[in-house]
Description:
binds decanoyl-CoA, alpha+beta, 6-stranded antiparallel sheet, single chain, 3 helices
Amino acid sequence: MTFVFEDIDDVEMERRRSVVEPLTDAVRDLVDAVIRTEVAEGEIPDVTAAVRAVTERLRSRQSDGPYGVRYTRAGTGMPWGNPAVGVRNAVAPPMRVQAGDDGLRWADVRLGAAYEGPPGLVHGGICALLLDHLLGEAAGADGTPSFTGTISVRYLRETRLGPVHLEARTDRYDGPKKFVTGTLSDADGPSVVADAVFVIPRWARATPPQEAPQ
Length: 214
Ligand SMILES: CCCCCCCCCC(=O)SCCNC(=O)CCNC(=O)[C@H](O)C(C)(C)COP(=O)(O)OP(=O)(O)OC[C@H]1O[C@@H](n2cnc3c(N)ncnc32)[C@H](O)[C@@H]1OP(=O)(O)O
């Protein structure tokens, strides 16, 4: 597992983000359009060829593997291939994680047609993905790395497509284990709750935190 440090400052990171984000947003829009289009079937082969041409252009120069989790000189993370928050990943809604008091992490996300499971409702795996990620962000609020060891997701009721709100925080520590809880709510209130144990890996375990994150 390699964390890559890019020799750039955060201003340069923001510049790069501003270049690539419109492309990712355009691809998200394309995904939605493919799901919902009702153009004549005869138009589809032409559109397919146009999309393939764009893909080929992007592939003319690309990295060998995944993007990785890169860091700027200031230590700002660039998890741009991440399926929950990735700036370069059109699969990500994306979720934009915000920091609140006492280690709270929260996000407002709009989930459209690409995230449908039961008709008009959010796919349960998408709820689990977003919660896992946000709980991971809450676990990381103390500055130590940790991985999901176990996560339990309880679907209280269906979640409607549209705007959803997520919150998570670390409730307590036990040695290298962080016990983290979170909720996902749609316009009618909480619909999914999650609790998880995040574990600080051995290589990062010199001084596990014993206090609530700030
Ligand atoms: C700010 C950055 C934000 C980023 C957010 C990203 C969120 C995304 C979260 C993820 O997707 S992480 C990827 C999915 N998870 C994994 O791939 C984890 C794979 N598993 C592992 O790497 C290791 O199994 C793990 C680090 C979880 C534990 O291995 P260790 O060798 O460190 O565990 P160890 O045997 O030393 O046990 C330490 C404690 O943890 C407990 N433990 C171990 N594995 C556990 C587990 N799976 N679930 C719950 N508890 C576990 C274990 O019982 C013990 O408890 P006690 O101290 O009370 O004895």
